Amino acid sequence: MRVLVSVDMEGVAGVAAPEDVTPGQPHYDRNCGYMTDEASAAVRGVRAHDPEASVVVVDAHADFRNIVPDRLARGCTLLRGAPRPLSMLTGVDRDVDAVCFIGYHGRAGTAASVLAHTMSGATVARIRCNGEELGELGLNAALAVHYGAVPVLATGDDTLVREASSVVPGMATVEVKRAVGNRAAESLHPDEACARIEAAVQTALQHPSPSNGPPFSGSVDLEMDLLRPRMTEYAAMIPGVELRGPTTVGYQAADFPAAYNLIEVITTLAGSG
Ligand SMILES: [Zn+2]
After folding, report:
1. So where are the chain's domains?
2. Ligand 1: distance of its center to the CA of 69 in Å?
3. pLDDT digits 0-9 by tens, 203-226
4. Which of 165, 228, 259, 261 is deepest in the core (most CB within 10 A)?
5. Cα of 225 to ligand 1 centre, how many Å?
6. Whole-angstrom distance, CA of residue 36 vs CA of residue 44
7. Fold assignment, 2-117+135-206
8. 64 CA distance to ligand 1 centroid (A)?
9. pLDDT tens digits, one per residue of 127-147
């Protein structure tokens, strides 16, 4: 089987503040180690289920260069660097059977949720697809489902776990910390978090739920609320993107992956202004 492990950083055990996940800040390097260890735990869980499995770990935080290559478990490949198509799930279009979401976080606007945001806290207020508001977990689960891959496990704080149960019912989850606020958490020991992730991945692959996730077939109406009118003006210069409000742009995408890729383009462009 082929498994993709997408790894973000805000939902990793021990992480609570923006500085914790920002290159150059005091604890960033240490937290990259924790992020790498949680990815390794997922890899071990996959290989315990199927020693022959092909596993790709996809670095999915910020500039996609956080995981420490020589600290990562053997028995997988590591995909890092940007830009790239299908950003947080690059490669999911290549016969992937199952996807694990490690270190994920609550969507923008979630109350008392550790570092909650959707794609970029500096530019994006909200994202809707066919009117349904989705965070990163929902967007990536929908992308996985589009390509026939089963979302099997999500890990993060308790708010991410609750979001998972509504957006991907039946998907296994691991709560590695309890959100005390947007920048405060009560966390498991990193080793304990890893032990639970490894066990949960193995169990989830043994008893896979049906391919859940927000289903989008055919064209998708993408709507993004950005934080400032200036960002919206940039985005509206992209052919086909229309201004729908002072800080809202819309686009009729041919299919879900087209909408997903455009989110990345708009987020990057809006953030450059
Ligand atoms: Zn992130």
Report:
1. 2-117+135-206, 220-272
2. 18
3. 999 987 766 777 888 999 999 999
4. 259
5. 19
6. 12
7. Rossmann fold (3.40.50)
8. 9
9. 999 999 999 999 999 999 999
CA 257 to ligand 1 centroid distance, Å: 20
The answer to pTM > 0.90 is yes
CATH code of domain 220-272? 3.30.1360.130
Centroid of ligand 1 to alpha carbon of 227 (angstroms)? 18
Provide the CA 151 distance to its chain's centre, in angstroms. Answer: 12
